[in-house]
Amino acid sequence: MTEKTLIKIEDILNGRKNGESIQVRGWIYRTRSSGNIVFTVLRDATGTVQATVKKGNLPDPEFKDAEKALLESSVEVKGTVKEDKRAPGGYEMQVTGFHVVHFAEPFPITKDQSPELLMDLRHLWIRSQRLSSILKIRSTVVGAIHQFFRSQGFLEFDAPVLQPNQCEGGSTLFEVKYYENKTFLSQSWQLYAEAAVFGLEKIYNMGPTFRAERSKTSRHLSEFWMAEMEAAWMELPDIVKIAKDEIRFILKEVLEHNVRDLVVLNCDKDKLRTIAESEFPTITYTKALEILKEKEHMDVEWGKDLRTVEEDNLMKHFTIPVVVTNYPLEIMAFYKPKDPKDPKTALCFDMLAPEGYGEIIGGSQRSLDIEDMKQRLLAMGEKVENYEWYFDLRRYGSVPHSGYGVGVERVVAWICGIDNIKDAIPFPRTILRFRP
User: At what angle do helices 408-416 and 129-151 cross, to 10 degrees?
Assistant: First the structure.
């Protein structure tokens, strides 16, 4: 095939090649034969198009190959593009050449397969139109995060994945043998990012995160990706504003670049556009409890964290993301400081997505009080001496600083409207699954 005539399927669907003789290459998405005609739907990374193969319009051996080729056979096809409103996408190819690059064996995935089988065959199911659309949106989300922070003057900073300290709770650490010692997989880049902001001031990162949470819910993964930011001279209100701006920017990028994928997933584009153009409200944890009591008749004891059920019921009363601040200090991580205006609460926030998708961002201002952090670590059973390097950051020219992390898979799941976060990542790792 010549590069001059080789095109992507999206060029056909956009109507730019009507009446032209072109060539495409890809895989057989659907196929059926009827006498001297083979109706084949071809797919590539950009879309699907119907190709009509009529006997007599191409060499006889090629027609026989078209009859024989099964689903997922890889092919190179040439023909003329014709508008046909009956065809998927409104166009079809009238085939004049059909070359099978590889004849596939009978494909093991058929309709109505169980979720577990699809997970076992994830290496093949990842080709599906649904997962392809989700992963395209994921790519846009990740690209938007990079674009957003770089446009705001942030520098990308990479922290080690192997770390000796816990950041989000020792019970969720993955232990790793490190030569003759042991270390842990990263729960967050945060502690190292705090070291970097005293030189770089505004930084961000996109990296893998590991939490050994013994949870089997549709919201949890053992390995996921988090986009984190940290900035010197910023306090809680500053990062809350950045977080809201970031999510709106991500939505606008998806709406600009992934319309066809949103259609495949039956997503409501107008709803996403409304959210992208809205101001997200901010409420306190205490106010959230008041809403739950008044509107849901849920009497949640002050001081308890919001579980999935509380978050879901709270978000019944919002159609856009909501920022919740000032959670109880006693249930927060050791590095989250008390609010001087309300000492029983911490200078922290979560952003909750509507429609049952829960927390998509978590962050806080960072404590500057070494003694308070030591006492809280001791209460958790941690070895304070392991954090001396972290306390050095407060001893030598400390300044107010803050940061947050965005759960990439949770944002993707929310935008795509998918039921289970496992479909928001190519190969999910959970408490029960670490292969393929």
Answer: 120
Confidence of residue 81 (pLDDT cuts 50, 70, 90): very high
Same domain, 94 and 137: no
Tell me whether residue 272 is in a domain: yes
Residues present in the chain in total: 436
Question: Is 225 inside any structural domain?
Answer: yes
Instruction: Give me the pLDDT at residue 241, please.
Output: 98
CA angle 413, 414, 419 (to 5 degrees): 55
Quickly tell me which residue has 């990542």 as its tokens.
425
The Cα–Cα gap between 2 and 187 comes to 49
* Sequence-ordered list of residues with C-beta below 8 angstroms from that of 223, at least 6 positions apart, any chain: 208, 209, 210, 428, 429
DSSP annotation of 280: P
Side chain identity at residue 285, one-letter code: Y
Is 70 exceeded by the pLDDT of residue 338? yes
Instruction: Give the single-character DSSP code of 351.
Output: E
**Average pLDDT rounded to a whole number, residues 119-124:** 96
Residue with tokens 């099978």: 100
Same domain membership, residue 309 and residue 219: yes
CA distance 329 to 108: 52
Measured in whole angstroms, the distance separating CA 138 from the mean position of its chain's CA atoms is 5
How many structural domains does the chain have? 2
Tokens standing for 31?
């196929």
C-alpha 323: how far from chain center = 19
Please report, as a single letter, which amino acid is at residue 272.
L
Please tell me the predicted confidence (pLDDT) of residue 2: 54
Q: What CATH code is carried by the domain that includes residue 332?
A: 3.30.930.10
Distance CA 185, CA 199 (A): 25
DSSP string, 97-136: EEEEEEPPPPPS--TT--HHHHHHTHHHHTTSHHHHHHHH
Instruction: Tell me which residue range forms the domain holding 98.
Output: 9-102
Separation in Å, CA 364 to CA 198, 209, 234? 17, 18, 10
Question: Do 62 and 98 form a contact (C-beta atoms < 8 A)?
Answer: yes
Cα 306 from Cα 68, distance rounded (Å): 57
325 touches 332 (CB < 8 A): no
Q: What is the mean pLDDT of residues 413-418?
A: 97
Average pLDDT over residues 181-200: 94
Pairwise CA distance, residues 353 & 141, whole Å:
16
Percent of the chain with pLDDT over 90: 88
CATH of the domain at 15: 2.40.50.140
User: Nearest-CA neighbor of 11 among 40, 52, 47, 53?
Assistant: 47
CA 181 to mean position of chain CA atoms: 34
